[in-house]
Automatic annotation (TrEMBL):
Keyword Isomerase: no
Entry's Gene Ontology cellular component terms: plasma membrane
Top-level taxonomy: Bacteria, Bacillati, Bacillota, Clostridia, Lachnospirales
Protein name: Branched-chain amino acid ABC transporter, permease protein
Alphabetical UniProt keywords: Cell inner membrane, Cell membrane, Membrane, Transmembrane, Transmembrane helix, Transport
Intracellular or extracellular location(s): Cell membrane
Coiled coil spans: none
Keyword RNA-binding listed: no
Length: 335
């Protein structure tokens, strides 16, 4: 007689685990601070979520292919700087109408081009020169940041048109426009992963590149596509940050790299590649945002938060390792 699959087994296990963690963190934050549930705090979290969410999606795709992208934040910053340099003169000259619309379109296209360019470079170097992803993206992170510093002379670029900044502070149906942007990118990513050939191939390559090669897959092209996606989503994040803050600079939000890795791993993305779950990513993103907002309300220092992200990452990786080890042992005993 065939044994029924447990609700806690397989894919359900990860979703339920993240659901429990998310609810637990939420309850703890609410119990520790009565202001946590105020509408102003919830709205503030909705404005902050897109930044970490977009960078985490960019990181997730690189990790899904069996790599990592440490250049996501640097790419996003340079993309934002490119857009700000185009939009700043338009704001100074008080350009309106069709000319302003044209400037905004040009700024968006320039940002996406920056993301696509460096995403392609990362993928090309990793795929064709066999450079380990960590080293390749660490080098590109430093290189991109250097370009940003040279272009801006180490200063921030601000003063974009009010019409552009409006989308970073306004809401639609009570939800910030940038949050809608995150929802759209999540939906597109879900379609890519679960409904397209690319999604199947990138998971196969991440799980076992040698086997994928023998099945006829163009592994080099898949790597390039994965990092191209990472670069474009990083650029979108840079634009979202520019809309919200009206400022672009070379060293903005460097801690997001660690948080994006943590969010991806916590969200059931295998650091060795092959598996990722959008539902778990959403829950892990909410968990980290609840923690971050709670820490801010308790006026904890940024150093403590960095310590917490690092500790969490070590804890999650350790738990995942021992869980996989135990499952492997059980499988060997059953065999």
């Amino acid at each position: 007689m065939k044994k029924e699959k447990s609700f806690w087994s397989g894919a359900d296990r990860d979703v339920m685990k993240m659901t429990v963690i998310t609810v637990l963190i939420f309850v703890i934050m609410v119990s520790m601070n009565e202001k946590f549930l105020r509408a102003s705090n919830l709205t503030s979290m909705c404005f902050q979520l897109p930044e970490l969410g977009l960078y985490s999606l960019a990181m997730m795709m690189a990790m899904l292919s069996g790599g990592i992208d440490l250049s996501v934040v640097s790419t996003g910053n340079l993309a934002a700087i490119s857009a700000a340099l185009i939009l700043h003169p338009a704001a100074e000259n008080e350009v309106t109408g069709g000319v302003l619309f044209g400037c905004v379109i040009l700024a968006v296209l320039a940002s996406l081009a920056v993301g696509a360019l460096f995403g392609f470079i990362n993928g090309f170097v990793i795929a064709n020169l066999n450079v380990p992803p960590m080293l390749a993206t660490m080098a590109s992170q430093t290189f991109i940041k250097g370009i940003s510093i040279i272009v801006t002379q180490g200063k921030s670029v601000s003063g974009t048109p009010e019409q552009f900044v409006y989308f970073g502070s306004a809401t639609l149906l009570g939800i910030p426009y940038t949050m809608w942007l995150l929802i759209v990118v999540f939906a597109v990513t879900a379609v890519l992963l679960y409904r397209t050939r690319f999604g199947f191939e990138v998971k196969m390559v991440g799980a076992n590149p040698k086997t994928s090669h023998f099945t006829g897959m163009n592994i080099k092209r898949i790597y390039i596509k994965a990092y191209l996606y990472s670069g474009i989503v990083s650029a979108i994040c840079g634009l979202a940050i520019l809309m919200r803050t009206d400022t672009a600079k070379a060293d903005y939000a460097s801690t997001y790299v660690m948080q994006a890795i943590l969010c991806s791993v916590l969200g059931a993305t295998n650091p060795d590649g092959g598996t990722a779950k959008i539902s778990c990513m959403v829950l892990s993103l909410l968990s980290l945002q609840f923690l971050s907002s709670g820490f801010n309300m308790m006026h904890l220092s940024s150093y403590f938060k960095e310590f917490t992200w690092g500790l969490l990452l070590i804890a999650v990786l350790s738990i995942n390792f021992f869980t996989a080890y135990i499952r492997q042992k059980r499988g060997l005993h059953k065999a």
